[in-house]
């Protein structure tokens, strides 16, 4: 594959893409954005683009704590918050000012059952929104939650356009650092940086080999993630491009269907945890582009668990656990593993298959296109699957993914994990009045999950970007967002390849 790629890339260097706009910086992505209304978007690319198009009341710092965005706040009582908008905030792209009325309209619409916002459940504790004047707004809550400001990270949209039923998902109007310049087709989106009119074009290129070839040919300027490690290694050797990387926080795991009589057996889940050699996979498959994970939140997060002991790679212990569960050479354990059809994910599945075979587990791999695969996971049609939580910054993920009240469609407890103690710890954390008091509950919960293994934790993959050598100023975010586009620039005028 590498030899063919090098040959094709070499051939491609003799010709330019006559159709490209040399003024634009081109970012190739695997999935194109689908919905540019921040109240409704659920896919990762849309949410990352919406961060560029819309301003937010609150941001999150590197440890996941709420920090001022376009507003500062006061907690007047445990259930009463007052926010004041910054005087320096940008106007909407139709040149109208962003006011407290727009903030109120945005969050009232999210709470409206009629638009089916994915943020509604998190924000359902808002009892009343009160506009005090053009810059000040108050939120009255039905219950205390010291993490409430962190929930206000949805992009603000204009009240007048909400009232008019404007199709923001296709025609966004925000007050963020970028505007939409053109969206000629689903796989091509042209943004313009409002500070200097620098254009950034997102183009959908699903195949990683093609993305790399386009980068080497000069048709594309920037790639971020979704590259097999061997291609990253190849690109490190090319003078025309630069590779940068940073530690990531996106959590990869194996998920189980606990309603299944086999994967619902804790001995089986522990056997799998001991059978997998995570360090070897990171070393040889990922080329050390990642770090081991023991919990969904990384240890540097304010609510992260810092003292969980990893499951050692111990095939002997795995075989013993399987015998206790009633499996042996004459009666092997057969499991179905679902994954996407991405070539790298298939190679990972093959490695897992080989490691599990060493302890007597016969793993059948079932791969599907992303839509079919994720549809099966959401519907609970699996025994075992591999996925990654992307962009998780708040500990309310534990309610969403593990509380017994969060079985689909009311949440993402897709493995049917039902544990009264886990529910009590989640509820106890919510009742605490200060973030510092929530930590003990979240750490106890993560310790419980580490013992019971509704997920086998795998790793946090590194963030990796590859760019043409004439680009500078791009900074990687630990969660993979596109905020580096705020500062990226071309050092010199583009030369024809």
Brief characterization of the structure:
With 497 residues, this protein is of the alpha+beta class. The protein has 16 helices and 21 strands.
For the record, give the distance between the C-alpha atoms at the N and C termini, rounded to a whole number: 24 Å
| Overall average pLDDT | 92
Structural category: alpha+beta
Spans where pLDDT lies below 50 across 5 or more residues: 11-19
Q: Helix coverage percent of residues?
A: 25-40%
Total beta strand runs: 21
Question: Biggest sheet: strands side by side, in what order?
Answer: 8-9-10-1-11-19-12
Q: What global shape is seen?
A: globular
Tell me about the biggest sheet?
Answer: 7 strands, mixed
Rg, Cα atoms, Å: 24 Å
Q: How many helix segments?
A: 16
Report the portion of residues in β strands: 15-25%
């Amino acid at each position: 594959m590498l030899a063919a790629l090098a040959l094709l890339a070499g051939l491609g260097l003799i010709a330019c893409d006559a159709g490209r706009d040399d003024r634009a910086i081109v970012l190739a992505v695997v999935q194109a954005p689908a919905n540019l209304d921040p109240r409704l978007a659920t896919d990762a690319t849309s949410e990352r683009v919406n961060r560029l198009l819309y301003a937010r009341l609150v941001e999150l710092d590197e440890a996941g704590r709420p920090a001022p965005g376009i507003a500062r706040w006061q907690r007047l009582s445990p259930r009463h918050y007052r926010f004041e908008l910054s005087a320096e905030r940008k106007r909407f792209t139709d040149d109208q000012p962003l006011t407290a009325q727009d903030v109120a309209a945005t969050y009232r619409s999210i709470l409206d059952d009629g638009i089916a916002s994915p943020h509604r459940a998190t924000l359902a504790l808002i009892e009343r929104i009160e506009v005090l004047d053009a810059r000040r707004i108050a939120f009255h809550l039905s219950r205390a939650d010291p993490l409430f400001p962190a929930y206000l990270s949805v992009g603000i949209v204009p009240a007048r356009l909400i009232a008019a039923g404007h199709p923001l998902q296709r025609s966004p109007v925000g007050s963020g650092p970028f505007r939409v310049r053109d969206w000629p087709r689903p796989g091509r989106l042209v943004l313009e940086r409002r500070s200097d009119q620098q254009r950034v074009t997102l183009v959908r290129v699903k195949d990683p080999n093609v993305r790399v070839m386009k980068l080497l040919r000069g048709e594309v300027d920037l790639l971020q993630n979704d590259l097999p490690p061997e291609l990253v290694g190849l690109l490190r050797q090319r003078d025309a491009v630069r590779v940068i990387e940073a530690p990531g926080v996106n959590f990869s795991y194996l998920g189980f269907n606990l309603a299944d009589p086999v994967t619902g057996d804790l001995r089986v889940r522990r056997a799998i945890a001991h059978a997998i050699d995570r360090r070897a996979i990171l070393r040889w498959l990922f080329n050390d582009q990642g770090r081991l994970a023991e919990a969904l939140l990384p240890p540097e997060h304010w609510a992260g668990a810092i003292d969980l002991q990893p499951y050692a790679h111990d095939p002997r212990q795995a075989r013993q656990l399987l015998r206790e569960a009633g499996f042996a050479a004459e009666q092997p354990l057969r499991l179905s593993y679902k994954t996407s059809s991405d070539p790298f994910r298939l190679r990972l599945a093959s490695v897992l298959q080989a490691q599990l075979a060493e302890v007597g587990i016969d793993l059948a791999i079932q791969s599907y296109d992303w839509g079919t695969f994720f549809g099966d996971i959401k519907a609970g049609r699996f025994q075992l699957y591999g996925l990654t939580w992307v962009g998780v910054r708040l500990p309310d993920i534990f309610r969403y993914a593990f509380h017994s009240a969060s079985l689909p469609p009311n949440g993402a407890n897709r493995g049917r994990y039902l544990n009264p103690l886990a529910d009590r710890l989640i509820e106890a954390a919510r009742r605490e009045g200060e973030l510092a008091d929530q930590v003990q509950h979240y750490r106890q919960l993560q310790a419980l999950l580490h013992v019971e293994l509704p997920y086998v934790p795998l790793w946090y993959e590194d963030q990796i970007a590859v760019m043409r050598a004439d680009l500078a100023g791009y900074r990687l975010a630990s969660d993979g967002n596109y905020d580096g586009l705020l500062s990226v620039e071309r050092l010199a005028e583009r030369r024809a390849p």
